[in-house]
């Protein structure tokens, strides 16, 4: 699907099928419950950026779950790929959800900030310098939390995905690209070795890695109080 000349119908089916694959392998519901929902409120708006949104199902699920929970969340989903953007933006609209054709660096250049920044299945697409740039962008774009989720490479993940998808997705790139993605993805040790200071790698089931960064807490006021107390 990365080939600009790939079959257009198979590509559309691939975007449409991402939601089924992500429902099984992305762990997104768990990430929403544990990391995102506790930061949302019914009163104040929280903003979230999905980097590399592809077919848009991750952004759509998050917007839908927050609305169902009565919590206010605006979701901006970006992808520089014109075909991905056209597919995602062409789906039925949801309140608070916006798709934009952009790179994370475009938003940094425009000075945009979000409470939460995340991506799903983007890391394994990137070379070393691109990965570093994405993480720098994430820190600049996030006021609070950044989470990059991806597959963890392992022979069992490869075998399981190969067998599990074998009867399905025949007329899309899901199976072939998924297997390539697993071969390209990181192990825990590899991702931990390239994670910059401030980033931590968490391992999750099934064969998931979450690269996590949290904005440093501002501790100055407490220190000032302490100095006053000793004055
Ligand atoms: C495999 S797709 C992931 C799609 C989607 N997140 C999902 O889980 O189905 C990876 C996408 O990341 C996008 N991408 C890569 N680097 C990016 C960046 N710096 N900013 C925005 N999008 C990026 C690519 O254009 C591609 O569409």
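Q: What amino acid sequence fits the structure above?
A:
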């Amino acid at each position: 699907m990365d080939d600009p000349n790939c079959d257009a119908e198979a590509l559309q089916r691939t975007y449409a099928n991402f939601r089924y694959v992500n429902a099984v392998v992305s762990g997104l519901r768990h990430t929403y419950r544990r990391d995102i929902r506790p930061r949302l409120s019914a009163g104040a708006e929280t903003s979230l950026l999905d980097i590399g949104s592809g077919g848009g199902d991750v952004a759509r699920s998050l917007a839908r779950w927050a609305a169902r929970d009565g919590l206010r969340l605006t979701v901006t989903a970006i992808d520089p790929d014109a075909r991905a953007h056209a597919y995602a933006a062409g789906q039925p609209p949801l309140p608070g959800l916006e798709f934009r054709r952009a790179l994370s660096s475009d938003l940094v250049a425009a000075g945009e900030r979000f409470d939460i920044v995340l991506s799903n299945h983007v890391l394994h697409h990137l070379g070393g310098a691109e990965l570093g740039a994405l993480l720098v962008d994430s820190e600049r774009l996030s006021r609070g939390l950044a989470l990059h989720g991806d597959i963890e490479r392992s022979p069992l993940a490869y075998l399981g995905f190969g067998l599990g998808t074998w009867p399905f997705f025949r007329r899309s790139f899901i199976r072939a690209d998924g297997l390539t993605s697993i071969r390209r993805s990181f192990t825990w040790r590899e991702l931990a070795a390239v994670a910059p200071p401030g980033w931590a790698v968490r391992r999750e089931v099934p064969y998931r890695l979450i690269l996590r960064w949290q904005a440093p807490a501002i501790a100055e006021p407490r220190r000032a109080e302490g100095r006053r107390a000793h004055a």
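Q: And what stands out in the fold?
A: The pocket of S-adenosylmethionine is lined by residues 18, 22, 51-55, 58, 78-81, 84, 103-104, 120-122, 125, 134 (CB under 6 Å).
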